[in-house]
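pinging the channel bc i need a second pair of eyes. not urgent but kinda urgent?? the chain im working w is below, pasted from the shared doc
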Amino acid sequence: QVQLVESGGGLAQAGGSLRLSCAASGRTFSTYAMGWFRQAPGKEREFVAAINWSGDTTYYGAAVKGRFTISRDNAKNTGYLQMNSLKPEDTAVYSCAAGPQPRMVSYARGYNYWGQGTQVTVSS
C-alpha cells in the first residue's frame, strides 16, 4: 500500500514557476512509475507527465512539454513537478499517482494510488 501527499501548490503569476512535491509512504514506491494529472473546473482529467520507476525515462502531455519537468528522488520517496512559464490555462487541481507498474503510462486507470490533489492557480 502506498499513500501519496502533494504539496507546493498555490498562486502564481503568468510566466512564473511553481514546484510541486509528492511525498510517498511505503517501501514499494521506488519500484513504481509515477504520474501527474490535473483537472480544471468543468473539464476532464488531463495527463501532465509521467516518469518510470528509476527516473531515467519521462513523458509529457503536449500542453506542458518544454515547460514542465517531472523528476523523482527514490531515496526520499518523493516525486516532483517543476512548472515553469506558467499560463492561466495551467490553473487546475494537480494530483500525483503511482504504481503498481514500473513502466510509465499516460492514462489514469494505469495507476492504483492517488494523492488528494493540490490547487494551482495562475493569474494573468
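so The chain is about 0% helix and 50% strand. and The mean pLDDT is 96. — does that match what u expected or am i reading it wrong
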